[in-house]
Amino acid sequence: MLRHPALRALGKIWRLLDRGDRWQLVGIGVLMLMGSIWEAVGVGLVLPFIAIIEKPERLNEILFWRQNNTPLTQGEEYEWLLTLSLAFGALYIFKNLFIAGSNYIQFKFLNEKQRKFSVLLLRSYLFKPYTFHLQNNTAKLIQNAKTETNNVFNQYLLPILVIISEFLIVLAIFSVIILANPFIAIIVIAALALLTYLFFKVFQRALRNLGAKRVHYEQHVVQAISQALGGIKEVKILGREKLFLDVYEENLIEDRKANFFLNFISQLPRSYFETLAVITIILIIVLTLVQHGSMAQVLPLISLFAAAAFRLMPSATRLMSSLNTAIFYAAAVDVVYDDILEARTFSTPALASSHSPPQPFRDRLELLDIYYSYPNTQRPALEGVSLTIKQGEMIGFVGSSGAGKTTIVDVILGLLTPSHGDIRVDGVSIYTNLSQWQRQIGYIPQSIYLSDDTLRRNIAFGLPDTTIDEEALLAAVHAAQLSTFVAGLPEGLDTIVGERGVRLSGGQRQRIGIARALYHNPGVLIMDEATAALDNQTEAGVMDAIQALSGEKTIIMIAHRLSTVMNCDRLYLMANGKVAATGTYTELIEHSPEFRAMAKGYETPPSA
Questions:
Q1: Domains and CATH numbers, the chain
Q2: Distance CA 331, CA 338 (A)
Q3: What are the pLDDT digits (tens) for 416-453?
Q4: Is this entry keyworded Magnesium (predicted)?
């Protein structure tokens, strides 16, 4: 049983890796084992090498294959010493090159897995139901996909691999010094093990708790930045800069406290083990003098222990620092584990769905007894809604806030799945192949999302330059009545619009949204209060562009201002999730008191 949280996190990572990844990890483990053996060999050769340097005549004992056991001459001793010195140096060069190569393979593996799982996680989020995004904070999802996946591999798994590597090195070197002098080695090892355990025990609980806090506060730091910069206009107008800054700083202080503690604790092992190394060398000298009584006799042994201590100190330091880091960042594994595990179930065909042909729409769109409730709510947002929209009609949904207008459009869009009922196009349920139905829709929201990129890329939205259809692009620009505007731009369609379209007017942004919706030549155009934020004159211009498409395309509108739906073929008045009344603008004025109250202040359309 993996009882410690840091070990449980390791078990979770193992379950997240596929068979190929696991074999790569095993291969890295083998390289670590070989590296530790080379480290032990390097340290183990110190004793005989120092012994030969001290007394070159010992070469006669080593070179046992020489005929007649003839002693080496002084010149021959010099040659052998030179050869052995070069071989000793070459061994260390090879050892360090081998370890450098192992580290390269290790880092390459970790970075590749971090990239793989980050993409996998974002893919999972993109393909989640729309309700998932309604319930989850965007800053948290960004944090998980970018930061926490990096922490899983580079701040947790990397330290775990370092721990394994350094532990094997420590074990191998201890084996060498045990062979050299078991009595002294066992005393030293027992003392070091006890002191290391005490050091670990003192800090591990605090590190674990601070690691969980880091996840919490980092998410709130990202959220604070996103909210402050995302609403910068309102922030500046309302003078809320300091309030947003205070929220950001409060969370950042707590986040930095956690990281400060980790950095501080990670530096302690160096001083701790350096002190232990000096004390250990003194202890070894005392013990060897007690055993042998003469420094001359034990100089090679002391040299071996000194070399071992020299090599063990950085290993022990890295081992403890990595252990602290792994405990601190183990919480990152818990944060993304379930999401990554679920993300692995997505298959390539799901990604290919965006290329499905549109579902044919030649006759009618039917909503049949639709019920829908949002998660964790008691009252249904839609209750028994049934209606039919003919191909080529212009339809409007009106009603007070919370009446169900947006919900019914989101159901038609396929973003929300009704708990009861069906939506059929020409008699075929859209749920038999939802992506094909969505390819038939052009959607124009109230707030058009524009990236800090060219007008061309914003209209084609997400398509690489090589796949943008120039003819379809120009047709969309013309239909959205953007041609004159584009012609007046110095760079035309290659003009940068600025982040969120800050260099454009409200009407221009909405027209770009219309062009984007029309780029794929959809059969259905859905407007979600697309003109609510515009002035009357700009709204009239945008609606002229929309009404020019009437008859050619089926247009479904949510309207806050009734002036935008006066020319609709039919209106649906929504109230409490139900269709309260239906008819033309004139018919509703005549027969619906609620609609008349809404229409007060608007002029009725002129008779045909």
A1: 5-221+253-347 (1.20.1560.10)
A2: 13
A3: 999 999 999 999 999 998 888 988 999 988 888 888 88
A4: no
